[in-house]
Amino acid sequence: MPSEPGTAVPAVTGTARLAGLVDTDPVRATEELDTLLSDLLPEGPGSGPGTVPDDRRADVAHLLLLRARAGHLRRDMSAHEDTSAALLLLDVEQEPLLAAQALNMHAISSGYLGDLHAQLRCLDRGLEALLRADGPEATRLRSVMRHNLAVALYDLGDARGALGLLADARREARDLGHPRQQEWVLMSSVAAASFLLRGYEGQSPLQGEERERLLHDVGRWTAEAVAAADRAVEVGEGLANRRGASWCQARHAQLNGDAEAALTFARGAVVLVGSLGEMDVLARSRALLAEILMDLDRLDEAEQILVEATEATDRLGSVTSVMVWHMLAVCRERRDDLRGALAAMRCYVTAVTASRDMQVHSTAAVNAARLRREEVERERDTWRRASEHERRAARVDPLTGIENRRAFTDAMVEHARERTRLALAIIDLDHFKTVNDRFGHVVGDEVLVRVGAAMLAALPAPRGTPPTPGAALFRVGGEEFVLAFAVGGLHDRAVVRVVDRVRASVAAVDFSDIGVPVRDEHYGDLAVTASAGVAIGVPVDAASPAGGLLRAADQHLYSAKHHGRDRLVGP
Predict the structure, then answer these.
(1) CA separation for the pair 302, 290 (Å, rounded)
(2) What is the model's pTM?
(3) How many domains, the chain?
């Protein structure tokens, strides 16, 4: 049962071509990716994924996944290192789709290493990451990962559990309309059914009605696999050459007792898989071919095929090695080669032990990668908190906590882009210089803090369904504030009432507890009022988006000051 790597989403300029090259010429693709990554990944002491700048992390991770994909096709186990490095670079919250792709490919590497439990964990985490992603590629990858989860269950010996998951995978692959994916899911379905129908690893084969139903399903799935393979070739999907369908046809013929037809199809599957260099799938295809030869009592040929298969599986160290060595022991025993059977059985035991050792080693590697990732994430969180604090400090007036002129300019640019019709009011405290002169700047600062809080409390809330944005208040000068909000369906009188409520909140502030003179010889009451000028319009000037509105509001403010203060003029 082959796992599906899925399609790495092009993220770097020019890598769409590399993504295609990975499928057609993985060796050449690896060479080009090595060159690109040598330019992007830091070198020297303390270097590594954790030192890649934040704005390049997704790009570097994408290239690592392309190289890992090429490594999977060549069965180069360094692919496991590339997927580990990619996972260190990716933030699941920010890049859920790419992170899920990395987890899927890391799961495949874990499966090749024989660490099936790590494979299951990665697939589970990847499916969880996809909960944060939308779109057709996320849907397709979700289907691929569910299929791979079924493959992992099958490799753990749970064929029934695998068939349960594959029922959903077949439906999803059909709905998505990806014929090559359909072919692989159907191949896995036939493989899981064959496990139950043939009765491997000491299990009794299915009998009775259940057997007949499953045999019927295998026939239907095989026909669907052939049709899907034909469509994949017609539309030119990468790596489409009917090998999965040929494998299904071989297994279907074998289960129905037609060993000669099964042999023809199995030989064809071995040739097709061998042309692509998929070593693990090739080993399994050879195992099926050897099994059919053993059914035909052609034990010499079966032994030769199995010996070739062991050479590949020993390099992989996968669970396939365990299966192939066991078959070779049985084949030699049937040939009365007891010495050879004993040698094969010893290799079988060694393969079982190695597989378990690899599980421990791979689990340790995964845990080490997790610890490194957590350390990197802690560093990134610290940096992000500091950066967020700096960004907020740059946009907020430190005295009042109200957004400043920079924030106002950014907001106006956004409103200009969206062509928002705004009410914009300049609110200026009356005779504020006198407050500073009479009571001192310490009291003056306290006045600014209190009136700022009062105006914020008086701002109108978002309105309507869906709600229009609420009002925003900015401190743009010493005692000068700007109020801005989307007019929406409000008429001019309603706009005036909104602005005047905010302006009037200043006069309602109680300063009785701070009316202490500093530069006078007598005590006095502290009272503050504000004047406002308001204008309505759409900010349009790209260089100074609110320039026209500000000028109009400023003229109305001048009129309010000229006519006695503590009032609003406009629009």
Answers:
(1) 4
(2) 0.56
(3) 1
